[in-house]
Amino acid sequence: NNNNNDNNSSSHIVMEDDGLSKITTTMLIYGPGDSYVGGIKNGLYEGWGTRQMPDGRMYVGEWKAGLRHGCGRYHSLGGTLQCEWQDDHPVGKSDSPNGYC
Questions:
Q1: Is this entry keyworded Phosphoprotein (predicted)?
Q2: Which of 6, 17, 68, 101 lies 20 to 30 angstroms, CA to CA, from 43?
Q3: pTM (2 decimals)?
Q4: Mean pLDDT of 42-70
C-alpha cells in the first residue's frame, strides 16, 4: 500500500498527459533505505516502479492504484518471488527462470 506523505522529498517529470489525468515519473525518499521510484497517478503508485523498504525488502514491477498489480518481482531476505500480482497479492504461476513474467 502506498505510504505517500508530505514529509518526503521528491522530484518528478510528467511522462504522459492525456488531458484528464497525469502519470508522472517520481522519486520519493521516505527515509534511509525507504524509497519509491516510478509512476504516480492521482497520488498513488501507478505503472512501472520500484519500492525499497528499510529492512531490505524490495518490489520491482507494475502498480495499479497504489497496489502491486501485474508483472513484478518481490525480494526479501528469504528469497525472491517473481510472479503476476493482483490487488497486492501474488497470483498464478511464479518464479520464471529467465527473470521475466
A1: no
A2: 101
A3: 0.74
A4: 97
